[in-house]
Amino acid sequence: MNTVIKKQHAAHGLRREGAGERVFNCFNYLFLTLLGVILLYPLYYVIAASFTDTNYLISSADKMLLYPHNATVEAYKVVLKYPLIWNGYKNTIFIAAVGVLVNMAMTIMGGYYISRKDLLFRNFIVKAVLLTMFFSGGLIPNYLLVKSLGLLNSPFALILPGAISTYNMIIMRSAFDAIPSELTDAVEIDGGNDVVLLWNILVPITIPTIMVLVLYYLVGHWNSWFPAMIYMSDKERWPLQLVLRKILIETSELSGEAGSDVQSIGEAVKYAVIVVSTIPVLAVYPLIQKHFVKGAMIGSLKG
Amino acid sequence: MEKTNSYSVKYRLKKNKWAYIMLIPVVLYYFIFHYIPMFGIVIAFKDYTPFKGIIGSEWAGLKHFISFFNNMYFWRLIRNTVLISFYDLLFNFPAPVILALLFNEVRNRHFKRTVQTISYFPHFISLVVMCGMIRSFTLSEGIITNFLVSIAGIERESLLQNAKYFRAIYVLSSTWKEVGWNSIIYMAALSGINTELYESCEIDGGGKWRKAWHVTLPGIRNTIILLFILRTGALLSVGSEKIILLYNSSTYETADVISSFLYRKGLQEQNWSYGATVGLFNALINLIFIVLANTTSRKFSETSLW
Fold it and tell me: Are A140 and B115 a contacting pair at CB < 8 A?
């Protein structure tokens, strides 16, 4: 009888804990709670600080900010009046929308080709593609290429050079690989060509993977700033992240623009800018988190 | 099968005509945006000027390489790149492994999921926003400075202006951003471990520690090794983006790495050929490192990338 219960407990991972294990578990919960707080607090601080009077932020040398002090929305008023941010939003949305369409069309077509082991030149092309993961021309030749293509200051300078992420294409390939060959054979016997097979049959089946890749590319476009910095000199065309860099990193762009009154809320304005620019990510994160984790898992299983 | 092989190329091209047509943009993409820049590296051996073009510019031999190796900052760049990368490896490689092992011991599902969800979130914060936060937090009145002044008794100053703090800021902010996200891959490996192994270990009288040592660790060993190869292969490729967002001329001493130097010399000062030379040097070193890491791993553990 005893052994049966013991076995059942073992199966459920409920073996009786020794003192050492209890101490460990206690410590573990404590540590992970602390870690959660440490990881979250900076973001909480940003939100609280964005509603706080900047004078308080500067003078409160030794205090932790647990809630907004002298709550004010002055910082947001400044941000709302700042055209570059909204222009940046517009540019980023355009780049992300067109970019993801290009990314996915290319990734799906490339993934399809390398998943078909019976096609001509396949081995050669796979090798040529994989080589680019380990060796590249580098910053200067890429810049000169984009320049000579006449893409400087064009949103396509931010779309075309990264049209395919080879890593994502490999993930796409494995999704196609997982489809039983009987299905593809049946389509071919019915006289369906590769276009029909790919877009009408394979794509609908691999929607879960496609969604994950769409999200990967989307976040990539949303967060990208470096290519825009080197290719876009025209401020009107800057994506949001480059505007943010100007405000958060380079100088206190917003202060000094409207006199001393604005100067005094400079720090709070920076925090408000962070909040305004991160709201979309914050809003969709709970919805898409699951897909991202799944994506990371797909990647790891292939890795 | 024999019949397939004897099909003429023409027949096979025709049979999957649309597959090849759909391949055209993909091939064009790789050719234009990956292979043309590789040919563009040739300017590292020339005195490139935009006016004369890549083909028209005069050959310069190894002039730019010699000039780079003799640059007074050459060794500082190598040192900074290796050290930043090494500290990053030292802290940020084991951190997600440990975190995944700790998550794995949590029995309360809600608690586990909550902490995991929180820990993934910083991954989605953009680099620019994170570096903006770091800048504000480490100003002489910033919250991190306040904290360190009261806890560790450091001098009150803007921490990003002091070269001795740069590496710590660089590495620890990466921990904040990526530790949760990078633990996912290990969680996936952990979930793949056969539970029967744990049971048989228990029947043999093994406690938590023996299970961790004899079942859990061997279960994720290959994942660890594979990621370690990738990581050591990138030992000399510290990306320029975060460096450029965080450094300034007063911290070059510890912060300037090969890629940020290349960005300044090549793009900002428009020394095209010199920049391409630094880039080629860096790309070759990276290639050698990844091949070495892979060969070593294959020799000792039968795990490798190729």
Answer: no
Q: Which residue in A219, A236, A240 sits closest to A88, CA to CA?
A: A240
Residue A17 forms part of a structural domain: yes
Shared-domain flag, residues A54 and A186: no
Beta carbons of B40 and A137 less than 8 Å apart: yes
Number of domains in chain A: 2
Interface test with chain A among B9, B23, B291, by most A beta carbons within 10 Å: B23
Measured between alpha carbons, how far is A96 from B241 in angstroms, rounded to an integer? 20
Say yes or no: A185 and A233 in one domain: yes
Q: Residue B31's pLDDT is what?
A: 98
One-letter amino acid identity for B10?
Answer: K
Integer-rounded Cα Rg, in Å, for chain B is: 25
Same domain? For B54 and B157 the reply is no
> In chain A, which ranges are continuous DSSP H helix?
2-11, 19-50, 54-59, 74-80, 83-115, 122-134, 139-148, 166-177, 181-189, 194-195, 203-205, 207-223, 226-231, 240-245, 260-263, 266-302
Residue B66 belongs to a domain = no
- Report the alpha-carbon distance of residue A46 to residue A64 in Å, rounded: 12
A19 and A153 share a domain?
no
> Average model confidence (pLDDT) for chain B?
90
State the Cα–Cα distance between residues B37 and B96, nearest whole angstrom. Answer: 36
Contact indicator for B48, B276 with CB cutoff of 8 Å: yes
Does residue B306 lie within any of the structural domains? no
Which CATH number fits the domain that encloses residue B119?
1.10.3720.10
Contact A113 B26 (CB under 8 A): yes
Q: A235, A250, A265 — which closes off a domain?
A: A250
Using the beta-carbon criterion (under 8 Å), do A225 and B226 form an inter-chain contact?
Answer: no
A82-96, A174-188, A285-299 — which is least confidently predicted? A285-299
ipTM summary value: 0.90
Shared domain for B295 and B243, answered yes or no, is: yes
- Residue A273 in any domain: the answer is no
Contacts B40 to A, Cβ<8 Å: 137, 140-142, 144-145
- Does the structure show a pLDDT above 60 at A8? no
Give pLDDT tens digits for B194-204. 888 888 887 87
Report the 10 Å Cβ neighbour count for B160.
22
**Domain of residue B42, residue span:** 2-61
Distance, in angstroms, between B147 CA and closest chain A CA?
7
How many structural domains is chain B composed of? Answer: 2
Q: Report how far apart the first and last C-alpha atoms of chain B are (Å, whole number).
A: 28
